[in-house]
UniProtKB/TrEMBL annotation:
Domain Helicase C-terminal: 244-387
PROSITE patterns (alphabetical): DEAD_ATP_HELICASE, HELICASE_ATP_BIND_1, HELICASE_CTER, Q_MOTIF
Designated name of the protein: RNA helicase
Keyword Hydrolase among UniProt keywords: yes
GO molecular function: ATP binding; hydrolase activity; nucleic acid binding; RNA helicase activity
Bias (Basic and acidic residues) ranges: 518-529
Keywords from the UniProt entry: ATP-binding, Helicase, Hydrolase, Nucleotide-binding
Domain Helicase ATP-binding, first and last residues per copy: 39-213
Residue span of region Disordered: 492-577
SMART domains, sorted: DEXDc, HELICc
Protein's organism: Chloropicon primus
Record motif Q motif, residues: 8-36
Domain DEAD-box RNA helicase Q intervals: 8-36
Biased composition (Acidic residues): 531-544
Amino acid sequence: GKWRGGIGTFDNMNLLPDILRAVKRKGYRLPTPIQRKAIPLAKAGHDVVAMSRTGSGKTAAFMLPVLNRLKEHDTSGAGPRALILSPTRELTMQTFKFAEDFGKYTDLRAALLIGGDSMQEQFAQLADNPDVLIATPGRLIHHMDEIDGFNLKSVRMVVIDEADRMFELGFSDQVKRIFRSLHESKQCLLFSATMPAMVAEFASAGLKDPQLVRLDSESRISDDLEMRFFTVSSGEKLGALLFLVKEVISSEESTIVFVSTKHHVELITKIFRDSGLKANGIHGSMDQTARTININAFRNGSVNLLVVTDVAARGVDIPLINNVVNYDFPARPKLFVHRVGRAARAGRTGCAFSLVTHDGELPYVMDLHMFLARKLQPCTKDVGDEELSSKEVTYFGRFPQSVLDSAFEYLKLKLEDADVQNMMQTANRGYKQYLKSRQGASAESCGRVKAMDKESVHPFLFNFISGDGKAEASLIEYQNMLKTFRPNRTILEGDTQRSQAAANGGDFMTVKRRHHDKYIEKTKTKNQEPEPSEDKEEAEEEDGGKEKAASKRARKKMSLLDELDMDTAGGGGSHKF
């Protein structure tokens, strides 16, 4: 299509011709909202604090102003003029790739400083007089300590990417030390998905009159994203997940599965692979080389499933995700928004599937909807496609039992493997530890969930199950009705012919209590009387009253129930059960 140089396009941002050429070569047509707001402010020389989620185009929002200001390679050898800090190795590598792409038609040079790579190679990059340093804080400080004369006094533009994540990972002291080594006249661009107190305090202390760019991204979900919430028991989750990735989600679509622990990453990845699916996993304890290989395989389409923990996924920006699956539902609404923000980007549609337990995780789903200001309601057999597509109301429903039964039989075969059994046990122990550290849902959400009606089968799954899905939904509603049925009277208080005859139309239990009260009181009185002394019993036996004394001892040992039965049998009206 034709490039239009109107308001709101890259042509209108006064970028250098060589940089604009690279932007168009990369396929960028129109700037995203964060780019449209942040780039002009950065080009004007302002310090900027920008709040934007992953996938919003924030990397280009700071990379284009940086390269545009540097213009061309500095041959004086004064040192790097721009510094970009990222919290993780993967995110730093992605940022470096953007620098290469956008600087393709310039002679600007960039150096990549990350942990896990050869120090000698990085020494060589620094000796090549780079214009831009793209680094993690730890490795940058390592170079500052190791190389005599190496400093950052020449840096005039600094970027902190994913600042909230940077501080969460404990890099606060390192970032502050780096900032102290920078020139006072530096320009600073700070990008963060959220704005916790530590980041806000740092921004107010380290930036000069910063311009705030906020798109309310942390409480918004893309209108192009569909959300499906399915209730299952904890023991049914694995079967439900397998059904989703094998039957519902196309093998041509890229899908990220979020789990709670690294043990679940290893377990689910193995089960996926054993089931013939192309899957990789990444977690925080994984070797850096293995993580890079697995991420690249997912990025280039060699595998379509990536199983991750939140810690491992935070710094991984993978474009064009089709689906997100929450195997374990996050405890914080903002974390959910961050997870699903990876799908439905740049005008593409996407879907977020969530498997939740009714008592353990559904209150967190309610927390999320209160945060998003949306209604949450259970599915009934009458919910149709129009209701499911509503942006004001979200429906949650059960997974079909017929599907779960079939999946359970399939999984039984997989779980016969000794390695899988051991991994399952380890994952279960890890999940118990996770639950201890997970924050609780709000009391209001717990109360709302308890007050809700029971949900039926989710209509979205009707097209993926054999038979009549609506018939199964009707059956489940009938079962739910039976479960919640409460009779007005107990079986002993029912109006049976026997009770009516005994009570002459009165309440049977009342008559029963009235009839036996006198025997109970009589027994209590006897138990409170002093026992006859042994001398008296011996005297009675010597006087020929042995049978009478033996009868007394037997009555003392008689139980209350036996005595009641005896008295009732001789009392006329038969009320024994």
